[in-house]
Design a protein that fits this description.
Elements lengths: L1 E8 L2 E8 L8 E5 L7 H12 L3 E5 L16 H13 L2 H17 L5 E6 L1 H12 L5 E4 L18 E6 L7 H11 L5 E6 L16 H18 L2
Parallel strand pairs: 3-4, 3-5, 5-6, 6-7, 7-8
Antiparallel strand pairs: 1-2, 2-4
Helix pairs in contact: 3-4
Length: 229
């Protein structure tokens, strides 16, 4: 079951895609979008979580720019447009929307609620782990995390990072800095994928790898089942 709902945030209302499991949800997960909006790929991630028993909610973080933006990664023009939206996005305001979506999920009866993000959304998910009341957080190839590591001291709940080590958008030096900075934090787990490039879990994408996706996603589900139970 899926639908679009309205979520009320501090700056106004925005839409979010909701995927519901067939039975009583184990917990809720806020799915934070890539630079392409809440497109078919992101809705698919929410649907996957619902099949695993979670209530999944993907808020439209581009609503202040233009509601309902949906792009793909298949053309240069769409890439250019998506990067422009990413640069326009106020990440702090977007984080408020994530917090509002967490509150919305809990208002639906979810006793615990986590966050999962990809690319730009992985960075915002990391910030959510530092600044919001998320119960558990997962970030896939989060671009920019290395610039916000001074906030890691505020992480209060478990955080899982999936880092592809051949990431063509995130320098290896940045990935090494993330590992070395966070390795002493017992709340943080980092899985590194030696042969994978950016967005290796994006179905239909240039760097998609089915086997690596299966491994990473299994780790994500085990992590959420452990920490959102």
């Amino acid at each position: 079951m899926s639908e679009w709902v309205q979520v009320q945030g501090p700056d106004g209302g925005f839409k979010a895609y909701v995927a519901r499991p067939s039975g009583t949800p184990k917990a809720a997960v806020v799915v934070v979008q890539e630079i392409f909006g809440v497109n078919a790929v992101m809705r698919g991630k929410a649907d996957w979580l619902a099949r695993e028993g979670f209530l999944a909610i993907a808020p439209d973080l581009f609503w202040r720019i233009r509601p309902g933006i949906e792009l793909t990664d298949q053309t240069d023009a769409e890439w250019k447009e998506a990067i422009d939206y990413m640069n326009q996005l106020d990440k702090n305001a977007a984080l408020k929307d994530v917090a509002a979506t967490l509150a919305h999920a809990r208002a639906q009866g979810a006793s615990k609620a986590g966050v999962m993000g990809y690319c730009m959304g992985g960075y915002i998910a990391f910030l959510a782990a530092c600044r919001t009341d998320t119960d558990a957080t997962v970030a896939y190839h989060g671009g920019g995390i290395h610039t916000a590591l001074d906030e890691a001291k505020n992480i209060g709940k478990p955080l899982l990072l999936h880092n592809p080590m051949k990431d063509s958008f995130i320098p290896i030096e940045a990935l090494n800095t993330i590992r070395e900075t966070l390795k002493g934090n017992p709340l943080v787990t980092i899985h590194e994928y030696a042969k994978q490039d950016h967005a290796f879990t994006r179905e239909g994408g240039k760097h998609y790898d089915a086997d690596a996706t299966k491994l990473a996603d299994a780790r994500t589900i085990a992590f959420f089942k452990q920490h959102l139970a």
